[in-house]
Amino acid sequence: MNVEITDLTRRLGRTQAVAGVTLAAGPGVVGLLGPNGAGKTSLLRMLATVLPPSSGRIRLLGLDPGDHRERRRIRRRLGYLPQHLGYYPGFTVVEFVEYFALLKEMPAAAVPRAVAAAVERVGLGGQARAKLRTLSGGMLRRVGIAQAIVNEPDLILLDEPTAGLDPEQRVSFRALLRDLGGTGTVIVSTHLVEDVGAACTDVALLRQGKLVFRGTPGELTARGEGTDAAGDAPLERGYSAVLASAVQAGTDPAQARP
Ligand SMILES: Nc1ncnc2c1ncn2[C@@H]1O[C@H](COP(=O)(O)OP(=O)(O)OP(=O)(O)O)[C@@H](O)[C@H]1O
């Protein structure tokens, strides 16, 4: 298993952003779903080794991110697209991706070819020398994906990668996801349930910091069958049905309080 987390929690201010999540993932693409504020970003940040947990256990690629030396080894094999990726507007696409390749301690001799391949893979070969300030929001998102995959990571964490991508780009991005999941573990947070149906081998659904569903997209779809759950597509109805039954089961921390 590339990801093994046990009873993971994280408090942020007065909010229990992640409230006891246990999850394991091997090669494949896990779609991380959940309503606004469910804890997806907080969970991804802990997996990306940028946010320490309040409690619980994490092992990534068989290593302990709490140990300084092991964390460094994890980071070399990790790709992370944060929800909001800062950038230097004067950098070109290639300069930006190169910068991340060097931060990930890739051997300098391997960098130019790896950068060119990553930029090509996200469909930005024609903009390689363009300055970031001249790119559209969707193109910037693709530059973000390129920096995440430049080191051919074994663990890839993508926080809403399809936000801002046009339909054509979303289709080619899903193909890239399937490709990446063939060798490594990809965890991708999204609000687009159709991304999950098209590209994910597994689904994890969070609600109020808790894991309320873990299974395949087919199993999530099945949860909506025969119900009057809201949704325009079978997978969306499964998503709504799981959330509705989570409320009834009292997984709502606000409701669980005496
Ligand atoms: N720095 C912070 N300080 C206090 N509370 C925070 C902080 N960051 C996040 N939270 C809270 O933690 C909870 C989980 O937030 P998180 O961003 O992980 O959810 P999310 O599922 O990614 O949401 P979205 O779909 O809106 O991006 C939310 O209630 C949020 O308000």
Automatic annotation (TrEMBL):
It holds the Pfam family ABC_tran. The keyword GTP-binding does not apply. InterPro entries: AAA+_ATPase, ABC_transporter-like_ATP-bd, ABC_transporter-like_CS, P-loop_NTPase. Residues 3-233 form the ABC transporter domain. Keywords: ATP-binding, Nucleotide-binding, Transport. GO terms for molecular function: ATP binding. Belongs to the ABC transporter superfamily. This is ABC transporter ATP-binding protein. It comes from Dactylosporangium maewongense.
